[in-house]
User: Fold these one by one.
Assistant:
Number 1:
Amino acid sequence: MKSEVRAVRPPGTPTPDAFQAFFDALDEPAALCDASLRVSAVNPALRRFCEAHGIGVDVVEEALSGASAPDDGQAHEVDLVLASGTSLVLTLSRKADTVAVRARVDTEVISGRLVVAERALLEQARTEGVLLDLGRSVAEVGGEEELVAAVARGVKELFPARSFCIRIVDARTGGLTSLYAEGRLKEGAHEPLVLSQRSVEKTNLSLTSLPQGRVSISEEVPLLFHGSTRAVSAPLVASGQLFGAINMEYPDGLDADIAHDERVLLQLASQVAVAVKNAKLIDELTFVRKYLEELLEKANALILVVNRDKQVVVFNEALSALTGLSKEQVLGRDLSSLVADSEQLRLAPVLAAAMRGESVNNFETRLLTHDGGEVRVSFATSSMLTQPGEVEGVIAIGQDVTVVKELEKRIIHAEKLASIGQLAASVVHEINNPMTAVATYADALLQRSRLTPGANPADQEKLRKILESSHRILRFTRDLVSYARPAQDRPERVALNAVVDMAVGFCEHVVSQARVTVHREYAGDVPPLAAVRANLVQVFVNLITNACHAMPPGGAVHLVTAQDGQEAVVRVRDTGTGIEPRNLSRIFEPFFTTKPEGRGTGLGLSICQGIVENHGGRLTVESTVGQGTTFTVRLPLAVD
């Protein structure tokens, strides 16, 4: 007879189904293993836990297969690191031959990683903040020097305790234009510019644009600072052009993430390169603008610019000097207020044509001066166009024609004088014939009277005076014709005293009219000069005439000749009113005169100076107000 064996369950003990239900209902991931850690049961929570971390239950089983079971009544933990980096902890608890396994995430590892991530986020936020502030700073700078200073502040804030060097170069020539170094730079280490191959590839630098001999590419960038062990660099590249580089080096013992630093430095360099390019463009534009402004201001021409409202926007120095009006007095004023009233009707159509884009050449008008006078100018106008082709204003470039007009008047006057001179020459010829007869007959009568006994001496004296006066007239007419004849510019040996005497003879009528006296103090031993006689006579005629005009009746003209070394000296001194100091430096200028209107042209002294200098000499002046003026002529003596 066969007997049955039955498991007897103590009263009140749960059934296996109840244990299974409890095991499945656990929220904590769990599994049951035997003493060899072979998994016999897995609850749903563990399956969900594994799915949440992207693994299967087999991963847990594999981890348990490599572990050892705890002793009976003991527990220990097994670490399981997933491919994602997540760390799991498996807690093993043993009772008899059954091992219970519970799974959880290592919260300490997660906390640590969260701290690291938080620090990384904070560092990223700080880096972005510094870069943002730097972007604002470089956008506001006014030049390259300020830009470099702003970049240096940003680099120090981003990378403390590091040595760094900022170099800015000319994109075309590669020449160094700015340098900033923080640290002890090696001598001569800042040139030439060496770039790393890796950074060049990351910045898309065009190698064909690199200037030869100024920039080189290398696998490793040489250290620039004393005491550095490692280095990173970033080229400043914008639009494929190189504008410089930033080198950063690490002292021995500094712990830093070099890869991270290089990424940030490249990001910084990209931002700075654009700013450097813009700064250089601004500098170039500023230079060009200043150059053009200086060109307009200093140009040896009259330059005037008006806008569409006919307001003056450019009034250069030549115009200021001509009119005596400063730019502050003129800029912003209507152009019509600067011309004479009688010229405004002529000016209006010219401006209207220029505003339509039409050019006008050789437009003459009269500008007002600061003292209410007028100057005559000639302008050529041209329209200034905007980008779309609209007329923005009018530029007028011209010249002062006041002198030209004055010269035209002088030429007309000179032609009149030439005609009168020709008439005078004819008159002189007509005078010479009868005066020769008078002199001849007077001489014959005088000789007869001397041979006649009992002749009246009084009659002889009268004949002698007639003869002397006739010869004086003949001599004067002969010298006058010689003086009026055009000079051949061929120097001849002339006696200085005789030339001065001839000039005095021509000025006798001026001397008598001014009621002054002439005192001659001639040196008798002055050697002859090599000179054009008529031209020298003209010099002394002008100086004597000016002296007579400068004195009231009763004055005296002193003519002194002397020899000083290899020079002949003539001094023409008057006792007149003298010349004001403010006019003394201008008396040799063409058309400058202190004489009343109608008494002088302002050309005499200028012509005299030219004649003296053409003879290799000098004409100087000394004057004291109230005491008189002395003109000194120095001429080289003839070489034997």
Note: The first helix runs from residue 16 to 25.
Number 2:
Amino acid sequence: MSEKKHLSYPVSPKNNQVDDYHGTSVADPYRPLENPDSVETKAWVEAQNKVTFGYLQEIPAREKIKQRLTKLWDYEKYSLPFKEGKRYFYFKNNGLQNQSVLYTLTSLDAEPKVLLDPNTLSEDGTVALSGTTISEDGNFLAYGLSTAGSDWQEWKVRDIETGIDLKDHLKWIKFSGASWTNDSKGFFYSRYDEPKEKTKLEDVNYYQKLYYHKLGTPQSEDLLIYNRLDQKEWGFNGDVTEDGRYLIISVWQGSDPRNLVFYKDLTNPKAKVVELIQEFESSFSVIDNDDSIFYFRTDFNAPRGRVIAIDTKNPARENWKEIIPQATETLEGVSILNNQFVADYLQDAHSQIKIFDLKGKLIREVKLPGLGSAGGFHGKRHDTETFYSFTSFTTPGTVYRYDMVSGKSTLFRQPKVAFNPEDYETKQVFYKSNDGTKVPMFLTYKKGIKLDGNNPIYLYGYGGFNVSLSPNFSVSNLVWMEMGGVYALANLRGGGEYGEEWHQAGMKSKKQNVFDDFIAAAEWLIANSYTKPAKLAIGGGSNGGLLVGACITQRPDLFGAALPAVGVMDMLRFHKFTIGWAWTSEYGSPDNQEDFKTLYAYSPLHKLKPGTAYPATMITTADHDDRVVPAHSFKFAAALQAAHNGDAPALIRIETKAGHGAGKPTAKIIEEIADKWAFLVRTLDVKV
């Protein structure tokens, strides 16, 4: 019996909705599914999950996969330690805890004390810690909580010595951290006006405002620092400089990496906000300051990044001074430690760390354990001690202590995972996209692979928003490789791997380049005898979900299975929900006639063709996703099931009490991955 006959899909709610876009009539029959709270949508979700989970439960290998995931996942995971005042802090997960626990200790060899355990805040682990910041004196913790994966946060304050929360309770915060003043009496944060309770997960978010909260006072008394009623799309990040003198206000607009930079002198109560960088033309990130001189990492006249100094007393562009020039590698981030710049570069999508003096002279390159990703090197201006983590596809996140004076790394925390990394190998290949562009791809697999065209492959990509994908360890991918699978990671245009030019080559009117790069990766894997279409699965989340949706609608013949997660599938209405308007800087706007032509040409929802045999597909989303609203996945699933004319399953898995992915409890993550791999084991005919 074929899968098609075996599966009976629920009837999807429809209407006769037709919209006019610049003279083009576009039907949107599944518009009713945009309302997540309607009776018919809720019934549809329940019916779809019944079909999907029924299908997954029949896969014999699923329980075995889940058990292996659970066993491998059960190892201690440590974050990097950091210091404020006279205390150290770090996060630790014992292995299978739903959320990591925040600890504090007076010295690195002292007995740690639990400061905040998010696992105690809900029975099912769906309340997550979404932000933390420690006061300058090390006495107070401000922390953000999100419920069921929502982007909405509530912030509270805890006395670190007693472990007791103060009365401070801040609400309607989204896309914001908190930054303490040096006197530890309060902090800056950004919030939106209170939304309507019934539609808070769908309503658009405009007019963010920057506030100062004084400890011990109600939120209603918070001081408004900056807002712009003439700029509804502007958002504000407020950060206090290490010397405590300035509040740096980074102004963002949508998802565009280009920003403005304003500042306010905190030593003068009457000081006005000064607009230093006044045009959205480049990215500017403040590293630190020497009195009136601000150091920036920027891509201004340097698409791969450089370090410049701007004296606020002489801020004209002709007075800007280059400290570290643009390199062949991409400059991802910079910090100052031991009065030296620590520069984090990407070289062909893997980490390279260089240290310079404050005049820009190279002191040394940090020797890393291998081809992978390094993160950390945080701390205060005069710290001689810092920490960094290193990870690769076969190296779990390992923490090193680094001596800024001697340049020596010493092992600090090494996870113990029940596998032998020597059984696996990673290689980086470069392939040509259809326009000749050279694109890198990492391949990781068990040693001794046979290039006979029969290997099951999971090809992953993102390709957007200036996001760089570099090597990282994943228990999920390890289980896939243990079953004989190959994990392939393609560094597509639209990402940040090669700087802003690489990003811009995959956005707006050039978005098709991203899909072409991914399709070319699949074709390279087939041409080089790693796999064949029937054994090739593709996956990606959010913008990567759009990538998967676009590729299966453009080349349904090329793939055996597809796993689009929380994807942007309706490119004509994405800007009408929550923060979706912010993505028009990346995708363009359907309200613009030229952008509409581009978006309509690849929008996954609108490119499905009735009577086509599509690859086996399992769409995943969550009922509380207020980043990419679930309507994208709901409508795409309904349309796919109606158009599909093959034997392969077309399923949607809808997580409940979860959001876009951040803060998802460990138990839910393991369940979802077990379902994902079980689906591929069955549809790609993987022998387990």
Note: The longest strand covers residues 165-173.
Number 3:
Amino acid sequence: MRFSPAGDPGIPDDRSATRYLLWLAGRHPFLFGSGIALGIVWMVAQALMPAAVGRAVDAGLAHRDPDALLTWGAVLLGLGVLQAVAGILRHRCAVHNWLAAAYRTVQVTVGATNRLGGALHRRVAAGEVVSIGTADIEHIGSAIDITARGAGSIVAVGTVAVILLDASVPLGLVVVLGVPLLMGLVGLLIRPLHRQQQAYRDSEGRLTARAGDIVSGLRVLRGVGGEPVLSARYRAQSQALRADGLRVARVESLLEAAQVLLPGAFVVLVTWLGARFALRGEISAGQLVAFYGYTAFLVSPLRNLTEAADKLTRGHVAARRVVRLLRLTPELVDPAHPAALPAGPGDLVDVQSGLVLRPGRFTALAASAPEDAAAIADRLGRYADGDVTLHGVPLRDLAVATVRERILVADNDAHLFTGPLRSELDPHDAADRAAVEAALVAASATDIVEALPDGLDGRVAERGREFSGGQRQRLRLARALVADPETLVLVEPTSAVDAHTEARIAERLGAARRGRTTLVCTTSPLVLGRAEHVVFVEDGKVVAEGRHDELLAAEPRYAATVSREEER
């Protein structure tokens, strides 16, 4: 019944939408149970008020008995106080349950995205994840919240039915048979609403993903003249989403109308029958007053029940989306019994390419095809499976967390996040200010910090959009240097900077990483010339090794690759 990959061992193993909602409810059993109990007390106290009023009319007013009138008046007051107190506490529990369910969903969603890691964007659209955190959490929270009022309404309707059956079997049967009939009529609207909401939610996720793609690639689109085409497609998809929304609204409007019309018609029917029974002397005046009170009261629980059907449907649709994300499994998982890794640096070997990284050495890798260098970096960091060993131990035999602690791969797909720049450069707050400043110097990024009004305390906007491409690249390099991993793999860390800045970075990088294992994947002569050891890769295999000047003289293919870089 449990599974651990999603980050919480208590999530149901089959991860169905219904079981997920039950799991959320069970996270705080005391408050969830208290909310239901208080909801029952709250509604039953209201259901008993018409009975107290009816007894006050019959025993007090009809028989002119002041004591009986005071007694039933006190009972009515007590029921009012009980209803008020229970209602306040129920609302308090309901708000807690709403927030707990919504934000617990955020936690498991973030845990699932972290677990998927680099495979996330290949397995699910970004818009899907965003929609879970913006729209779905509200529906899931509301589904948990409505249970208290829904349970109270069911018990209250049952209580009223028992009282009416005791007083008048026909009227009692009207309630006993009429309420299920009303709920059945509402249920006829639930299924199409469920279907339309699912279609709308799918369209919303696709449109959000498209909007994200357009925004992130806006400069490129404008450069190649593709903005009008993508804008037209976005408008067409937006109108399709609007049409889906109108279909959902059409069904929802019918449901809202049913919430008013059906209980209202039910009240009219019971009141009319009660009046006829009173005229025939089958019930007393007090009972007629009580019956009218019951019918007026029944509007509230019946609306609660139709609202519960609506919100539980929405919550089920939203939970299905969350479960779909939780069902995704990462491409790389920990072995059942992770191997132990010796402490300290060791040889890092990529068997497939023949690359051997010696500990403590500044190595550069030049590949005739950039994708070969990226593939090797992914294997070294265990972002892709491969025959890679550290200290002679295969990386696939190690826990992924252990690999991440020992080997850091920094490429140009990494993002800058919103927040203070210092926290962005040192997210774990593990380095002192001197280490951060030294990393900025090595990455030739001090001018970026100096340009900010608050320096390291300045805030970074989303994805660092206030910085140029070269500035973002230098800040990412500084962040990798601050982390100071045992083995650092840099993929094209200077591709977006000018030649003067690149020369400064190449000159300082070796000193900043002295004594630590470093691999730089690049074809820049400025960086290659500063490396202690250069490896040349062609067709995914190491074909030559040595110093930069040696390879230029002895390996024509290497010289051709580097020359292309110089020509650019």
Note: The first helix runs from residue 17 to 26.
